[in-house]
Amino acid sequence: MQNLNINRAALSDRVATAYKELFSSRPVVQGQVIESQMPDEQLHYFIRQSLDRHYFVRLQFKSVPDVAPATASGYLSEDAAGHLVLKQDRRLTTIVAPRLLRSIQRY
Question: What pLDDT, in 10s, does the model give residues 45-54?
Fold first, then answer.
């Protein structure tokens, strides 16, 4: 029974990837949709907005061609030194460099 569930999960992942590749207007690399590069002004505006309004956001980082970009979701905050910190849960925290971001979306 467990093997059947694993096969269904793998099949549904493959179907979802094929659907994204066929019907997405944006490029797909390794099953992940590549977001458009946001202009710097827009990135800074959205970062400031998510800090002020405490939005749950999804960040997509820049990557090399033919490699799926890294994504992370959580709440952005600033530490005392002014660094951006993404808190995903109590145990996982990421320091974010705005120059390495491709896009930010409210999630």
Answer: 999 999 999 9
Residue carrying the six token digits 């992370």: 72
> Model confidence over 57-99: pLDDT tens digits?
999 998 887 788 888 999 999 988 888 999 988 888 889 999 9
Torsion of CA 104, 96, 38, 41, to 10 degrees: 110
Question: What is the number of H-type helices and E-type strands within the chain?
Answer: 2, 7
Per the DSSP assignment, residues forming a β-bridge with 29 are 32
Residues written for the chain: 107
Residue range 35-107 forms a domain whose CATH class is mainly beta
Q: At 103, give phi and psi (nearest 5°).
A: -155, 160
- Give the full edge-to-edge strand order of the sheet including 93-96: 93-96, 84-87, 71-78, 56-61, 101-106
Residue 94 CA to residue 107 CA, distance in Å, equals 17
Q: Which value, in Å, is the radius of gyration of the alpha carbons in the chain?
A: 17
